[in-house]
Amino acid sequence: MANDLNMMIVGEAGQGIVLITRILASAIMADGFRVLTTDVPASTHRTGVTYSHIRSGAKVDSLRIEEGEVNLLLALDPIDGLMIGLEYIAEDCRVILSNQVLGKGLISLKDVSIDRIVQSFQRAGIQDISVIDSGLIVKEEKVPSVCNNMVMLGAALGTGLIPAKMESIEQALREFSPPGLLKENLKAMKGGFHFFKQAESARVKERI
Q1: How far apart are CA 111 and CA 120, in angstroms?
Q2: Burial status of residue 110 (CB atoms within 10 A of its CB: 0-12, 13-18, 19 or more)
Q3: β-sheet bridge partners, residue 38
Q4: d(C-alpha 173, C-alpha 190), whole Å
Q5: pLDDT digits (tens, 9 = 90+) for 52-107
Q6: DSSP output for 136-202
Q7: Can you list the domains of the chain with their CATH numbers?
Q8: Average pLDDT, whole number, for the chain?
Q9: What gap in Å lies between CA 43 and CA 28, rounded to an integer?
Q10: Neighbours of 58 (CB within 10 A)
Q11: Smallest Cα–Cα separation from 143: which of 186, 178, 101?
């Protein structure tokens, strides 16, 4: 678990980015770490791109992350993650992409595939990229599609870059989860976490 975090969460308005930000900020503070957050809202209601900055570390003194300093990018929409994230990501950034392509905010191209998006990150020098089949995980966990954001939160936790214990994350989720969705959100978050861990284990075996 790292102590210094410069994280950006990107996606479409209405995907639950603010909820993820609140959960992470609460959990990080509960575990005794300093944390600063800021939200950049969509320009139009529920149709544009929105993103959050989450910073944690002893020397953090600014709400906004400077260009080239993001070390964890979580993209609930991969097109938006590419278009916004490339401005901010560091060379060693860990990129977590949902495979659910929406792209309503910046571009809307039916032929844009997740493979092309990954290749674009790779051409920019980013190699540590994980694609999360959040739609499949939602189906396997038998939770509503609105829980996609919690699947992606779980995957981000699997990186070990976020300075918060799972117990603190679960407590924050109980505090901030919308009424009637707590059980489903917990299942989705844990499903995303386990999916990421299994995928990472498979990647390590391939390298051996």
Answers
A1: 15
A2: exposed
A3: 53
A4: 12
A5: 999 998 878 888 899 999 999 999 999 989 988 888 999 999 999 999 877 554 45
A6: HHHHHHT--GGGHHHHHHHHHHHTS-S---HHHHHHHHHHHSPTT-HHHHHHHHHHHHHHHHHHHHH
A7: 5-207 (3.40.920.10)
A8: 88
A9: 29
A10: 9
A11: 186
| Nearest by Cα to 28 from 54, 10, 63, 52 | 54
Q: How confident is the model at residue 126 (pLDDT cuts 50, 70, 90)?
A: very high
Please, what is the Cα angle at 61 between 55 and 35, to 5 degrees? 35
Among 148, 155, 9, 41, CA closest to 105:
41
Angle, alpha carbons 144-96-114 (nearest 5°)? 80
| Amino acid at the residue 173 | L
Inter-residue contact 96 to 155 (CB < 8 Å): yes
